[in-house]
Specification:
single chain; alpha/beta; 2 domains; 12 helices; 5 strands; globular; binds zinc ion
């Protein structure tokens, strides 16, 4: 990218991902550039326009890419509420109709995501869909077992302290293979070290007298919930930047669990 040769590497990275306002200056006369980052061309046409003549179909919900100003006006708890409401639409099958091609263009000048989701890699948990979010809405970090480590924390610190994301949501899920592997002490290549990050949640229930194996769905879910709680606590403990932002009310760090059958996300208190 051309910016790298003209500005310090860190700043170039920030500009590249759209966290400053200077990106317009780098291409002031680009003939195909949208008009302005604060007013993206997000007036999307109705997806049913002209196609459903005579059919009594409800008007689909359409949504624009969030601008920086719109995002910055949102309090963290408002963003948590928006995620909850998006999940309710997902569960109900009433998701937002999005013109991804238009959204790609509208988001090309920058990104102002309102939240960061840390999820397991499980293919059955499509994070943006689960919260009815589109292009430019959320940062997503994924690792088997949704735990934090320095790389994940660094990504979160960028997403929050540089790019302005105002919620960190740790999303565990039901019937998690990584949690089951940690419970059973699976060892295989690099996976052994990965699963070691989940072991503290297993050890948390050292006094559990029931079946402490992955054959016990109750125990698996207990460990999955605890793993999310541990991750939330570890984020606060291991990232002073994020902890202080939360203490100042600029960020909320929350945990939640995804139900595989219903698609419903339950927030852990
Ligand atoms: Zn999983």
């Amino acid at each position: 990218m051309q910016l790298v040769g003209r500005v310090p590497p860190v700043l170039a990275f920030v500009l590249y991902v759209g966290c400053g306002s200077a990106e317009n200056d780098s291409a002031p006369s680009a003939p195909s550039a949208p008009s302005a980052p604060t007013a993206p061309t997000t007036e999307l046409p109705s997806a049913t326009g002209g196609e459903a003549a005579g059919a009594a179909l409800p008007e689909p919900r359409v949504e624009a890419v969030l601008t920086r100003e719109e995002r910055d006006r949102l309090a963290p708890q408002e963003i948590v509420r928006a995620l909850r409401e998006g999940n309710e639409r997902f569960v109900a099958g009433d998701v937002t109709v999005r013109d991804h091609t238009a959204q790609v263009r509208a988001a090309s000048l920058g990104q102002w995501p309102k939240a960061t989701v840390l999820s397991c890699i499980d293919s059955r948990v499509p994070v943006e869909d689960v919260f009815d979010r589109g292009i430019g809405d959320v940062f997503v970090a994924r690792v088997a077992g949704n735990f934090e480590n320095p790389d994940i924390l660094g990504s979160m610190e960028f997403a929050s302290a540089v790019a302005g994301s105002r919620v960190i949501l740790v999303l565990g899920h039901e019937n998690c293979g990584a949690v089951k592997g940690a419970i059973d002490g699976v060892e295989m290549g690099n996976l052994t070290a990965t699963l070691a990050n989940i072991r503290p949640a297993v050890e948390h229930f050292a006094d559990y007298t029931g079946d402490r194996s992955s054959n016990n769905p109750e125990f698996v879910q207990m460990v999955a919930n605890q793993n999310v709680r541990n991750t939330v606590a570890d984020i606060r403990a291991n990232s002073p930047i994020l902890r202080e932002r939360e203490e100042r009310g600029e960020l909320a760090i929350v945990g939640a669990m995804y139900d595989m059958e219903s698609g419903r996300v339950s927030f852990l208190e």
